[in-house]
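Hi P.,

Sorry for the delay on this. The queue was packed all week, but I finally got your sequence through. Input first:
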Amino acid sequence: MTTVAKRTIPEMRGAGVPDEAPKLQVFTDRHLDKIEPLQRLGEQMLFEMKVVASVLPFRVNNYVIENLIDWERAPDDPIFSLTFPQRGMLDPEMYEQMAELHRREAPKEEITALAWKLRHQLNPHPAGQMEMNLPEVNGETVEGVQHKYRETALFFPSQGQTCHSYCTFCFRWAQFIGDKDLKIASKEAGQLLDYLAAHPHLSDLLMTGGDPMVMKTKHLAPYLEGLLDERLDHVQTVRIGTKALSFWPYRFVTDKDADELLGLFERLVESGKHVAVMAHINHYQEMENPIFREAVKRIRATGAEIRTQSPLIKHINDSGYAWARMWREQVRLGMIPYYMFVERDTGAKYRFEVPLAEAYDIYREAMKQVSGLARTARGPSMSAGPGKVEIQGVAEIKGEKVFVLRFIQGRNPDWVQRPFFAQYDTEATWLDELKPAFGEKAFFFEEEYVAMQSDHGLKVIDAAEVE
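Then the structure:
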């Protein structure tokens, strides 16, 4: 049992821990009328929320409502924007189509049919997730696994394909709408472990979702303890992507199996694995509660580290001040700033995307305000089809203003760290909107990437592992 588990709730009260373990209470689109502080925003906003929540998933819990949102600032409060549906999340034509059905109180079947149609117009699986990232063994897809980069595999445990609350900007929104054709998930720990064993170049496993931290520890343990098998010695790092630190920090402190979870982390660390909790933190307000800081302390006491990441999101954190304040606090608490992402081209991007030129200015402004320990955050980074592409800067070369770009990670490892240039564009928000600089017809990787698309993206991975 982990050493941090020996602190009782009374002993932790000075750290902001409540007398009794709080109980999670979840609200969805069916409960909008029951969220008391929401009612002060007026009938029209409630109607707009119901319209948007017919298309995109909505889920919020009592901790977020009671502790993170400044209701005096709503609807402009950043955590309100992060969790509650708003009209601008759908483009005007889509919104009006769904709103008309609600105005005339159309049958549920008609609303569901339109929602299905609109969702498929919102690029539910960007960057080739379904077409290029799903590996096969003996002609059969390995369920719940994505393998885009040679060294890293993602796994989607079926019990973790929800969250304590949903982020309005989330690029994984398609996991939460009940459409089996759009969902990636698996209940099979054995198939995952066999796949990892068969790929010796895989050094990192990322448990993702949804959020694996919604799982009971007894359901999570078979996946993680299976990594202790000697045939998986090459899997050096276990990453766990989670929003629980922000949306339900009690998971690591007072939940009934919190100590068991931390003990699992500690066993992995003691075995020689590197355990990294990949915390999604989008705004500094999420880190201000004492219970958050206690959760951070307990995780770090197991030997696991916490790395932080977030997209740059309009209406939530689109200022250098917000990022600098966030990074400084994370470093103070012993967390490692890891990524500033660009909002992906999916779902509610209409409300949340920021032009790349502005994103770079915000990143640079934030970096100017922090010390070296906070400058570990890479970005702005686009997780695009070919790989993670970082905007390194803006320059003028031979009289032409350009974006300086590089691959942080690529489908072909040979692309990594190679600089390339795009025409400066104040409106572009994604890689496929950029044009090569200096009169070039295509970026250096494009021909090979097109060929990969016809090979389902895995040819380079397989070839590299045969070497």
